[in-house]
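Before drawing any conclusions, I looked closely at one protein's amino acid sequence and its backbone structure tokens, quoted below without any editing.
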Amino acid sequence: MAGSRVRRTPDEARRLILDAAEKLLAEGGVAAVQVRALAARVGMTDAGISHHFGTRDRLLEALLRHGGRKIRAGVEEVLGSWLNKGADLGELVEALAVLYRQGYGELAVALHAAGWRDEGSGMLDPVVDALHALRPADVPKEDTRLAVAALHQALATEPLYGPAFRRSAGLDNPDPAAQLRWWTVHLERSLGLPSHENRPGR
């Protein structure tokens, strides 16, 4: 029957809304994630969206956490390949960059600029643990955390600021791939890992 309401559990509704919000984020950035646009996309009312998330700010916070879970799952998948099949560090850096380019880098920057702070921590703990296990035993884990945090910061801000910052340094034709290769090489050096920069295709 046309116009009949679809009954969903609260968890199903939240997941549907977050999946739609993720698509809007990838298509148009943070500004595109609006309650009215979401309601139209999932076939709900504005009040229905608000019932599950409250304010738009709360929705964006939930979306960032949703993205964090996605990033962590993606990182763990890449780590499995990297550790078990000998993939190089560049694959890990590229996988993180791909996830951030889906709008999560812009979302994280926008929320933090607005004053939001994540009460949790450790989204990239699997990366820290995997990289630290390859380093000498006497190297403090804090050192590894700082290296991973620097990479995380750079990749998260890349979609918004990367090309402009490279132009500021005199790079007339900013190449994101070149920047990722630079990060890979310097992350390997700072962590004291074997270099893969001379592998074929790099």
Q: What stands out?
A: Residues 56-85 form the longest helix (30 residues). The domain at 9-54 is CATH 1.10.10 (Arc Repressor Mutant, subunit A). The chain has two domains: 9-54, 65-191.
